[in-house]
Amino acid sequence: MLIDENGRIAEANAAAEEMLGRSAHRLVGTSLLDVLSIEEERVRDSLITADTQLIARGILVGTAQRDRRVNLTSSPLPSHPGWRVVTLSDVGQAETGDDDDERVELRAPAVLAHEIKNPLSAIRGASQLLARRVDARDKPLAKMISAEVDRIAQLIDRMQQLGSKPIVVSGPCNLHEAIRNAMATVRAGRGEGCELVEEFDPSLPPVAADAGALEQVLINLIANACDASAGLESPRVTVRTRFVSGLVFSAIRLGKATRLPIEITVTDAGPGIDPSLRDHVFEPFVSSKPHGQGLGLALVRKLLRDMGGRIAHERDERAGLTHFRINLPVAG
Predict the structure, then answer these.
(1) When you count CB atoms within 10 A of the terminal residue's CB, does the N or C end of the chain come out lower?
(2) Please, what is the average pLDDT of the chain?
(3) Which residues contact 215 (CB under 8 A, 6 or more apart)?
(4) Mean pLDDT on 264-289
(5) pLDDT at position 131, please?
């Protein structure tokens, strides 16, 4: 919710409507504390102080529907003195304890995920409110912020599930749409400094893949290729698709061999990965970047394996090109 200098709700998104049990039309113009009952005096006083950054976890609040425990954040807007963005999110089971109200010990990754998701909620809420106020030319940018926040949140969830729950492929995926979405995301984050080239076979059928996971794979590979090309006079990354008719790749999926004839290749002309790391490039915590964490390609391989696909790295020293080749099954 967007709160004005008088503590009244100026904007509310769909999630706020659902949580507070009122439409945005009824919420706008109402004092925040009239629709949100907060027992803790310290939190209530901090919320009234507009210029104070507030993060409150697991507090009990009352709404028109029921009492509930939530995480609450209030973030001042420097450009508009007295205004702030307030976000509410339900506290999950892992944060409140089990059915016997016993405290649970959270593992470090879960704690980190929780700390990241709180500000993500604020960013997403602010972008939704921004989308209502900007002109038509800037609306796609506001929507992209919201979409990228959702993708980051999903990525955090997947990182927590590494080695456990696999992705369930629910239907066919438009391959070229996923690639173009990934390219648009990379362009938005990096500008036009690196040329992204499409070499698509328009006759290819849909693939059996999760669209969100495939886009995450492609964003990672294309962004890496742009990084590798950064020192070139004319940085260029080519994404090529084709049907591999002369070769048959197989992967064990659901106990049977699956043909993987759809190939995506991401190519750059950068210096390539250190030869000593090439055999380990898909392992966790292996990176040739000075400040790399070595998780990106490990996650790429995990996501593709979950979808029954494969990925390989190839360096063509004669041509000075690095290729990452993805092979996926045809849908159906």
Answers:
(1) C
(2) 81
(3) 151, 178, 181, 182, 185
(4) 85
(5) 81
For 159, the token pair is 């990182």
Q: What is the DSSP letter of 142?
A: H
Give the sign of the dihedral formed by CA 265, CA 266, CA 270, CA 276. Answer: negative
Structural Rg of the chain based on CA atoms: 24
Q: Which residue did the predictor score with more confidence, 170 or 180?
A: 180
- In this predicted model, which residue has the larger pLDDT, 135 or 292? 135
Give residue 222's pLDDT.
96
What is the DSSP secondary-structure string of 31-92? BHHHH-EE--HHHHHHHHSTT--EEEEEEEEE-SS-EEEEEEEEEE-TTSTT-EEEEEEEPP
User: Looking at 82-96, 165-179, 198-212, which range is the least confident one?
Assistant: 82-96
Number of helical (H) and strand (E) elements in the chain, helices listed first: 10, 15
String of DSSP letters for 259-323? E--EEEEEEE-S--S-GGGGGGTTSTT---STT--S-HHHHHHHHHHHTT-EEEEEEETTTTEEE
CA 317 to centroid of chain Cα atoms:
34
List phi, psi (to 5°) of 84. -155, 165
Higher-confidence residue of 325 and 47: namely 325
Quick check: 327 pLDDT over 90?
Answer: yes
pLDDT at 108: 46
What sign does the CA torsion over 256, 261, 262, 268 have?
positive
Angle separating helix axes 139-160 and 296-306, nearest 10 degrees = 80
The full length of the chain comes to 332
Q: Exposure of 209 by Cβ count < 10 A (0-12 exposed, 13-18 middle, 19+ buried)?
A: buried
CB 219 within 8 A of CB 186: yes
Alpha-carbon span 124 to 87, nearest angstrom = 9
Residues in CB range of 192: below 8 A, 6 or more apart = none
